[in-house]
Amino acid sequence: MHITFVKKRNPDGTSCGKCEEVERRLIRDGHLARINEIAIADLADPESAGMRLAREFNTEFAPFFIVRDGAEAQVYTIYLKLVREVLEKLPAADQ
Q1: How would you classify the pairing of strands 2-9 and 37-42?
Q2: What is the pTM of this model?
Q3: Contacts of 15 (CB under 8 A, 6+ apart)
Q4: What pLDDT, on the 0 to 100 scale, is given for residue 92?
Q5: Which CATH architecture has domain 2-94?
Q6: What whole-number distance in Å separates Cα of residue 92 and Cα of residue 3?
């Protein structure tokens, strides 16, 4: 399983407030180590990794998570749903 956390960066270079809040929660809840990749959706750069992922997965929400399990991928736009459906179910070896 591979989990990508996509955070938004505003055109003026500042971070998205909600994205920062979710990152703090990942740290607080002990889940940050379970995130395999962090991609930035830079609103000033439509070709940034996060912007490409947003187009690929047809989402306009940030932050969002992409959970890949083999050939299948699921997008989560709600942190608590990700925690309940994915992060809490991961075995300790995947941390």
Answers
A1: parallel
A2: 0.90
A3: 7, 8, 9
A4: 65
A5: 3-Layer(aba) Sandwich (3.40)
A6: 15
